[in-house]
Specification:
With about 220 residues, the chain is mainly alpha-helical. About 65% of the residues lie in helices and about 10% in strands. Strand 1, helix 3 and strand 2 form a beta-alpha-beta unit. The N terminus and C terminus are likely disordered. Keywords: Glycoprotein, Membrane, Secreted, Signal, Transmembrane, Transmembrane helix. GO terms for molecular function: oxidoreductase activity, acting on a sulfur group of donors, disulfide as acceptor. This is Gamma interferon inducible lysosomal thiol reductase GILT. Belongs to the GILT family.
Length: about 220
Amino acid sequence: MDGKHRLVQGRPNQPPSSMSSFVRIRRFLFPVLAVLLVFRGLYHISGRYTAYGKQIVTKRLVPLEAHIISKCPDTRDAMRELILPVMQRAYDKVDFKLNYIGSPTDDDGVECKHGPSECMGNIIELCARELYPDPKINLGFIMCLTRDYENIPGRALVEDCALEHAIDIKAINDCATKDDGAHGIELLRNSVVETAEVRKAHNIGCSLATLCHAMIKAFSKDMP
């Protein structure tokens, strides 16, 4: 009886099976939580480091504008002697805009100095810039056209230059003729209006060479 009594008395000193399971789970859970907390801390540190790194490498692009017309020898000279040399040296440091010279009309159209064919040439070049915003592509295409400016907007010239610079000629045609030509006219009109605003703001004359040179000189002085 005494032995039996001692055996019965000894049982309450042993933890119940459910409590024993909890103890085992707790022993396992604490290390896991500790590891998770460490990884969470590393994640936040990494996130802050990445965000900080991005902030460090952010660069301010210098605005640079040029204003041209497609069927003109002055454009060829300005592209060759002013625009391309600057872009070759600093294309990754500037926010480059290329706009066109013309006169907005009362019927929401545009009058170009060398007539409708020049307007069409301007639209083709604007479409190239819209579809291919990388200056290395669109300026190469535009310079290709400009070298033979007298034949702008001849189909053979446009197709040859598009092929040379890996530009989709169908996409260019679709852009220029979208909405029965309204999209192309809108691109040109917006560009012409912006040129007029720049000329007025900087008190620049209407000479193409003067306009290109003045704008590049004005904006290039801020380049790092």
